[in-house]
Specification:
homodimer; alpha/beta; TIM Barrel; globular
């Protein structure tokens, strides 16, 4: 059996079954060495308690999900987002996370101006970047699938995310989630670009189901869909990133309804059969 | 009231309510001067009868939907697709259509190789292009939203479609459907590129709803969603395309359940309030 050092479990994958403590215990029991929690899970457990938990178990934290959500209809809303992102940086530091993942936000409330939203994102990331650098917490922009452009993230391709990184400079990179980018005709080119600039900060995996029954909550387990996971992993390793593959599955009607231990065991089995090179 | 010369109705918009003859009658009654039928609607009416119908009413046919679907698991399947596309060209000619719209197809059955699918598309379009040129029927590649990459079309951005056009040459262009491309950070750039090359062959409109409840059948009426329709129309006109805006709405739970006359009247009202520059 291959080692599990290359696997991380994003704890959203078992969010309906487990508290943070239960999820950590279940992962450790199965030999998993890395996790990625969400802020609401950490808040529910308590930040100090969560940090103690990962330290006591010697877990790597491949990312904290999530900062971002910068666009807002008014200046007060945008300022509040910046404050909240600084708190997220503090939390990521307390957890010793590899990076803070940014889901940047969609259109401002009531707006149809996606170019304005994109400018608000660039401005927002720019406004927290010095704070992140001072705290040595890398920020990982996660380009989200274009079907989320309106309501979750107006950064929708690797190319676009990397253009923002180039504009803003150091301390910034991308989280490459196969679900969001597998379709991109420029994927190979942009993964190479990201790797050359040292900007690949995370690699998330799951699968694209055919048919997909819900835009948000119908992601598939690796191997159940159509994404060529090994082809993308190969691109990422060739580009110089060898960090864990982090399984992140939102699945209201399937995986969130199964016992958490079964889900984690399946993640391990599928990581071995579908993801490892 | 502005003229309706700039409006076309894609007859999928009333496919659940009307036969082709009923749809044409309803459009003509409302003063509409252009339509775009689907092949199954034409087949049900009979090709000669359909052609006579549009001629008798002096209607412009802004496109025939649709050719494409080139990828297949074996050579026989790919050859069958090419034959079917040649028949579609014949039908488009019989109807005097402005173009044949190509929804190019997704992954071949059982395959995860999107690059192979894309090559099959380029090969397939290449294989029908001389026939289309001889018959003076422009082929309009329609880049589809990335959420359809697996099962409907593996050409997912304007840039990618235009790269195929550049590779294959004359007689080929794009159908710009706002639903598929509104999110694209390179939209303005690529519309300008398409216009400069004389490759904009059609402009389809509807709207992106928030939330979107179904990947295929929950498109919105213009004005009910978040797409900045006038901004995109402006780009298209500046790029040199002044043809009709064609309303194409797949809406199983809303517009397909309303009386067809109401739907067409609403298309006209929203065209005037949301689309005309």
């Amino acid at each position: 059996m291959s080692s599990l050092d290359g696997l991380s479990i994003n704890l959203a994958t078992v969010r309906e079954q487990f508290t943070l403590a239960q999820a950590v215990d279940a992962c450790v029991r199965e030999g998993i060495r890395a996790v990625s929690p969400w802020r609401d899970q950490v808040a529910a457990a308590g930040l100090k308690e969560a940090a103690a938990m990962v330290r006591a178990n010697g877990l790597r934290v491949t990312g904290l999900c999530r900062g971002g959500m910068f666009p807002a209809a008014d200046a007060a809303g945008r300022a509040a987002a910046i404050d909240d992102n600084k708190r997220a940086i503090d939390e990521a530091c307390a957890l010793g996370a590899d990076c803070l993942v940014l889901v940047v936000g969609g259109l401002a409330q009531g707006s149809k101006d996606i170019m304005a939203a994109r400018q608000m994102v660039t401005d927002g990331v720019g406004a927290i970047l010095d704070y992140a650098r001072t705290n040595r917490m890398p920020l990982a922009i996660e380009p989200l699938h274009p079907m989320y452009a309106a309501d979750r993230a107006c950064i929708n391709t690797m190319e676009q995310a990397l253009d923002v990184c180039d504009e803003l400079g150091d301390g910034l990179g991308v989280a490459v989630d196969v679900y969001h980018v597998w379709w991109d005709p420029k994927l190979a080119q942009q993964i190479a670009r990201a790797g050359a600039a040292g900007r690949i900060l995370a690699h998330h995996v799951c699968d694209w189901l055919v048919p997909t029954r819900d835009l948000l909550l119908d992601r598939g387990m690796m191997g159940d869909g159509v994404i060529d996971l090994r082809r993308i992993r190969r691109m990422i390793e060739v580009a110089g990133y060898n960090g864990p593959q982090e399984v992140e599955i939102f699945s209201a009607e399937n995986w969130w309804k199964r016992p958490g231990d079964e889900v984690i065991a399946t993640c391990i089995a599928r990581y071995r059969s579908e993801c490892v090179l």
